Amino acid sequence: MGEALVAGLINSGSAPSAICIADKRVERLSELQNKYRVTPSTIENIATDCDAILLVVKPQDMGALIETISPTIPATTLLVTFAAGKRSAFIEERVKPGTPVIRVMPNTPTLVGKGMAAISGGTHARESDIDFVTNFLASSGEVIVLAEELQDAVTATSGSGPAYFFYFVEEMIKGAIALGLSEAAATKLTIQTITGAAAMLNESGKSPTTLRENVTSPKGTTAAALETFYQANTGEIISAALKAARDRSQELA
């Protein structure tokens, strides 16, 4: 995800040399420097080198990172957190009073320019901060601004959402193979079907309900398949899965 954000900053007009990156993995740092011509730094020094810092670490590592950099972060430096579940208040309480913080929940399709990101400003975030983050994230997908109390629901929907679709694709491929198709054929048929269906959702202007109904003939093959989903209470399972992800996001706060 960090690399996708670097690419997004460059695509939105930031000079590569003005982007400082730090990574505990020396090989990875060198790789990104060579690929994007960005400026390497250290976790200890980056706080004094930049006007905005993107915090792209696992939730459990955020506390230690903030403890390391907080002594040297000026109160005017924008901090942007990408850690699931970590509220802006978690960071605000550990840095200088008045420091602007923005919380972002992206997703992995950002890596191919099809991401979905939701951003929320903390107590001291300025409109210019929101605009800055929106601008560079928009270069790798869609962006919405939401109240922070909705971020756990966002995590459950778009943050974790790609994995739900990957799982569904996995199971469709397995099912198609069980019906006699080769793995190559099953994979191509399934992935292109998912890709085409997503394009229809984006481009047709029709609701998913309408699109589903349009392809479902009474007592036809699609109806038979959907009835299996209905009998298994698939809708309730999906709702329960989203709730579980939402609850876990709240636990990570």
Which labels suit this protein?
alpha/beta, five-stranded mixed beta sheet, two-stranded parallel ribbon, single chain, Rossmann fold, about 250 residues, ProC C-terminal domain-like fold, elongated
- Kindly identify the CATH topology of the largest domain: Rossmann fold
At the fourth level of CATH, the homologous superfamily of the largest domain is NAD(P)-binding Rossmann-like Domain
Q: Classify the helix fraction into a percent range.
A: 40-55%
- Which residues form runs of ≥5 with pLDDT under 50? none
Oligomer category: single chain
Q: SSE string, helix = H, strand = E? A: HEHEHEHEHEEHEHHHHHH
Roughly how many Å is the radius of gyration?
Answer: 21 Å
Q: Count of DSSP helices?
A: 12
What is the tally of beta strands? Answer: 7
**SS content category:** alpha/beta
Give the overall pLDDT as a whole number: 93
Quick one: overall form?
Answer: elongated
Sheet of most strands: 5 strands, mixed
How many angstroms does the end-to-end distance come to? 20 Å
CATH class of the largest domain, please?
Alpha Beta
Residue fraction in strands: 5-15%
Strand arrangement across the biggest beta sheet: 3-4-5-6-7
Number of individual domains: 2
Give your account of this protein's structure:
With 253 residues, the protein is an alpha/beta fold. It has two domains: 2-150, NAD(P)-binding Rossmann-like Domain (Rossmann fold, 3-Layer(aba) Sandwich), CATH 3.40.50.720; 161-251, ProC C-terminal domain-like (ProC C-terminal domain-like fold). Helices cover 53% and strands 11% of the residues. The chain has twelve helices and seven strands. Strands 3-4-5-6-7 form a five-stranded mixed β-sheet. α6 links the parallel β6 and β7. α7 (151-159) crosses α12 (234-251) and α8 crosses α9 (183-203). The chain is elongated and about 65 Å long.
